[in-house]
Amino acid sequence: MATRLPGTDVVVVGLGAAGGVAVLPLVDAGIEVIGLEAGTWLTRRDFAPDEIRNNVRDWPMAVQKANLEVPTTRATPDSPSFRGSSHPMMNAVGGTTLHYWAQAWRLNPWDFKVVSETTRRYGSSRLPAGTTVEDWPFDYDELEPYYDRIEYEIGVSGQAGNVAGNVDERGNRFEGLRAREYPMPPLRWTGFHERMADAARDLGWHPFPGPALINSQAYGDRAGCVYHGFCNSGGCHVDAKAGPHTTTIPRALETGRLTVITRAHVIGIDADRSGRATGVRYVVGSEEFIQPAQVVLLASYTYENVRLLRLASSHVYPNGFANNGGQVGRHYFSHHQGAPVSALFPFDISAWYGLPAQGVAVDDFADDNFDHSSLDFIGGGNLWAMSDRRPISAANGSTFGRAPSWGSEWKRYIHENADRSHGSYIQKTTLPYETNYLDLDPVERDPLGFPVLRVTAQYKQNELAIADFMQDRMEEWYRATGATEVSRGGLGNAMGLSTHAFGGTRMGDDPSANVVDRWGFAHEAPNLGILGASVMGTSGAHNPTLTVQALTWRTAEHLVKNWSSIAGG
Amino acid sequence: MKSRSVPILVAAMLVGANIVHAQEYHPIIVESPGMQTGQTMPRDYTPDGRNISPPLEWRNLPEDTRQIAVVCEDHGAGNPPPWVHWVVYNIPGTATGLPENLPIYANAPMPAEIAGAVQGENGWGRSIYRGPAPPLGQLHNYNFFVYALDAELDLPPGLTQQELMERIEGHVIGRGAIVPFYRRGPMDTASAP
Amino acid sequence: MAEDQRRTISRRDLLKGVGAAGAAAILPGKVDEGSAQPASPGAGTDPGRARSFAEVPRPRRLENLTADEADTLEAIMARLIPADDLGPGAVEAGALNYLDRALGGFLAGEREEYGLNLAALDRYCLSSRGAPFVELSTTDQDSVLIDLEGGSATGSGAGFTGSSASFFAMVKGHTWQGMFGDPYYGGNAGFIGWDLLRYPGVRLGVSAADQQRLEAGELLPERRSAYDSEMFEKATAMQRAQGGVEHGD
User: Fold this and answer.
1) What is the ipTM of this complex?
2) Which residues of C touch B186 (CB under 8 A)?
3) Least CB-CB distance to B158: which of A401, A486, A487?
4) pLDDT in tens, B7-51
5) Would you say residue A208 lies in a domain?
């Protein structure tokens, strides 16, 4: 029997990158907030520089609620679906920001206006067949103040490239106008980064250090990065890596208006007869609770946002909460990060100590920063050369055909070359398509008996053409830096599960094509706000976290300013 | 990057194998102690035995043979076929065959009578001989091709069969083959005749 | 119950995770002093000049494997990363010890798979090469491992639980973990694995000056486990749930 708890102003489902940020502007405005988090608190003591635990065994992602609900995946409705054993995201106060790479990119202005800008520059025929992409309901300038707010509130390191129209060649000359500099200088470069940057300049490109949600120096009460090399899938033992668990949530707790409930697995969203949300149901262990609230903010990552909505069917929402328009689960896509390029250099590159957010970026081939007139795709990719190496992964690296993968010959090879390989990271524009979507799996269930999500998604011709083009650019860059071997992976097919999963509850003015309005509240349920990349309609060529957080702050601020109309007095 | 393209001429030759174009070449007679065309291979040349390379002998080379190359292919496997089991080249034109059990280590010397010969990359990505491992119960044929070349090509080690075919194109003046088969059975009855 | 769950954690409690001394020790300014010195005698020696194997502990107190299984696995590991003129290998690093412990802990689910496939391996070796794996010449052992790796042993009828390539990949993966992982888990004895890779070691912080020394080839390797620092919780979440830890597994 479920225990009905006293009501609250706002209940936030999930205290990760999005929900963990939303709580602060709400409590600062005097609103009472209950935050439900499926994971627990973790601290610096949990973040040992231990490759076996963090990387090989995927801790702290193991033993998490998400791992019990791993979605199934398939490329097309005709292909068989598969269910992997682990979920790419983790549950904890702070969510996946505990161990993410912490790259802190803004989207490019083009990403907000893909349809109109493509049509204006190249003609509407250049929009790929079958895509459901739309312009965002607002432009980059609308979001700029919120990007700025997050960069200063949480702390971002970086080199500005365009402050109010003044281009600075040390930064990203292609970025949208920003009001001011980053609050901290960029993370430092190594000698190899300098070498890559020199080679990029020789090619006529514009290299710059990427932005990071990691302190390059002490910021507020948190220390600067100590570059120890275990950032990838590891938490930060000095709290230099920014996440809500070290920034917005502790600040919100100090007001006394935020209550954090850990190990809370949300299982349902309740609606009244008019379709308004009345609260959520959750379980802790074997006990079930009902948490009434005037406003519900759903912030449980793209996959779980969509699943919780689709599971919450009722008389008023027979096909899932806020899904009478049939849009929940549509316009899904995830960043194309595959089609890798790796290289072997004839010198040590000293990458043992560093982090994935530290490196050289090239945006000359991202978004619409280059002329696509004679190309067969729109969009592009961000080239990213970072530092990231640990012993086991180094020993498992490719031998580029120069040695077998074990035995004495391998031993000689790896002794010389363990620190001489480099793998690129190339994020590429990915568009939504009619045939890519999320729904409930008809067979697979979680331990509570609820269906898991099913991902049906495949990269289409536009994504594959970008991947091929970007591999050529990356190979050029590696060769120019002196690589003796370069190898390229396949261009990709099924999307699989991703840490950069977008759409499913897209934001837009047209209720027949979108789940939430321009402020992030459901067209069909005005007191249900949805936070996270599930509201984003385009991916750009850059990591989504900062955009997610800027959108979150904007949604929370809108709620504060319009409390009585949204909360229903 | 390894080249992905095969010249059309060579591709046609491979598909046609020894049926369509065999008459274009001077026929080399290929034999082996223990292996015969249309007969099962001894276990020791398969992973059901020691998986050592079989001995080959050849006769009736064209007069101006300068160098020899050997490839073992299964046209009933691979995606696309053939699956390549063995690639040997830079074999001196004076050689009359390959001894049994060529080395499986890159730094091990070749037997004196074929000094200078090197092995190329097989379908498993290793520059050694690996014998037949067809799915249980299936009979596959294994084409041991011997090519006579009219030039001393100093080819680098580790070439794949495709790369070798590209490099020797225009130099092939003779060819012959021996085509034994192999079928795996239950373990205790898999022994050779 | 609900009330307990709703107890919140203050920022002060959060920061108690590390004491003042611990925090000071990891500030970049302090890192230079510590990392300029080798952590222990013998650290920083050129791995090309191998330490005497006798100096390297070779624990053989089995917790999970049988003696026969351990012998076969050690023979495999000796071929995967052999001791040779470049220095000691996986056996000397105690990769077997890592695996044996893990099979009673994190890898317990793979214990049965090991037993079945090691038995299949010996059947395969007997049938194809006339002797169990440990009795074959090193050349025949390598030939067998190549057949396992390529999947050629799968159809031999020896009874591998799946593709012989999967079994090979599993053994190789665990050998690499035992060779190159943190010694806390029982492998990488004497930091043999890290010496082979020329890995400069686990540090809690690396200053710009350290990085420059590394690039100049002047940074002496640090040779210690992550858990030599008291600031880190040794138990994993799972071990914590099961109650206590004896050692890393």
Assistant:
1) 0.94
2) 157
3) A401
4) 333 333 444 344 434 447 899 999 999 899 999 999 999 999 999
5) yes
